[in-house]
Amino acid sequence: MARTLEELRALYGNDQGTAFHDPVLKAVADGVFGAGGRRAFPFAGVSTLLDAPYRPDLAEAVLAGAVGVPLDVALVGVPMDLGVTNRAGARRGPKAVREIERIGPWNRVLGTAPLQALRVADLGDVPMRSRYSLESCHADIETFFGALAAAGLPALAVGGDHSISRAILKPLAEAHGPLGMVHIDAHADTSGVYEGAKFHHGGPFRQAVLDGHLDPSRVVQIGIRGGGDYLWEFSHAAGMTVIHAEEVAEMGLPAVIAAARRVVGDGPTYVSFDVDALDPAFAPGTGTPEVGGLTPREAMALLRGLAGIDIRGGDVVEVAPSYDPTSNTAQAGAQMLFELLCLMARAPGR
Ligand SMILES: [Mn+2]
């Protein structure tokens, strides 16, 4: 019901920027505005993932075996791209995503301000012994996410190339049993051994299934496309649900969301978002772009449609900022990270 002019003048005429009469919006505003109606400058200070507090001390504590860490979700950078097939550069993804500001605080569609609803921190980057060894980097990633799992601390990772997901899933599955997964990507990433390597970024989900860490009957892959599709028969052989990019348009988003929810069900689920799922018109800063992809609006609607699933972890991978002087790819990546955090805030038991 619209207010009269007199009512509007009474409510807002002397407002100093802090007159919020809707109780839900007022709660969000109270979490943003400090004394005197001041907000932090988004362009000042040290950059962190989603502007969360930077707490590398908590990473050290978790690695040292601490439990009862006063945190609900850890944000973690994984700056490693030794598994790429073509264009390198995703090692610089975490830094680029940290540079993005003004994501959130409010998600109108899901009705949550996740950085207020949850205790969230940027724990910094996974410490890795050698920048030259894919295998030792994966071992270090497993160690780090294993320590988080042992501490009972859910995490969202920012890669890095997609090979990191296998190393993140392993300790999660050891803690929770085989996981379901919503995998949004241009590529199914279920290919095999090439040139003697099986831990490259084109195959993490074949390995995760073979290792018993993913339950393929609870895996849905969305946005798949491109000439590499001949490489991914494993997805079908394993019983994954594959929704190609053109099928997203044909089915419509509500049907895609319903299918994804049906596949993952109520069980523990991982959500992996490869930024190359987005069309390179929106996200050119990635190693293996494929035209004909999702729009950011579609991807956001898709993620928001997953609210209520039992998300135990997730990642945003393959942001390679060197190929995108506009920074839009990192902007989209940071937005998807925020959407994943909103899913954490809306998970069962929250
Ligand atoms: Mn991928």
Structural notes for this entry:
The protein has a single domain (70-345), classed as Ureohydrolase domain (Arginase, Chain A), CATH 3.40.800.10. It starts with a helix and ends in a 5-residue tail after the last helix. With 350 residues, the chain is of the alpha/beta class. The longest helix has 18 residues, at 328-345. The chain has an eight-stranded parallel sheet with strand order 2-1-3-8-7-4-5-6, sandwiched between helices. The protein is built from 13 helices and eight strands. Helix 9 links the parallel strand 5 (214-224) and strand 6 (241-244). The model has no long low-confidence stretch (mean pLDDT 96). Helix 7 (164-176) packs parallel to helix 8 (204-210) and helix 11 packs across helix 12. 36% of the residues lie in helices and 15% in strands. Manganese (II) ion (MN) binds at residues 162, 185, 187, 189, 274.
Kindly list the characteristics that best describe this protein.
350 residues, alpha/beta, Arginase, Chain A, 13 helices, 8 strands, 15% strand, globular, binds manganese (II) ion
Which series of helices and strands comes N to C? HHHEHHEHEHEHEHEHHEHEH
Strand content: 5-15%
Q: What overall form do the CA principal axes indicate?
A: globular
When the domains are counted, the total is: 1
C-alpha Rg (nearest Å): 20 Å
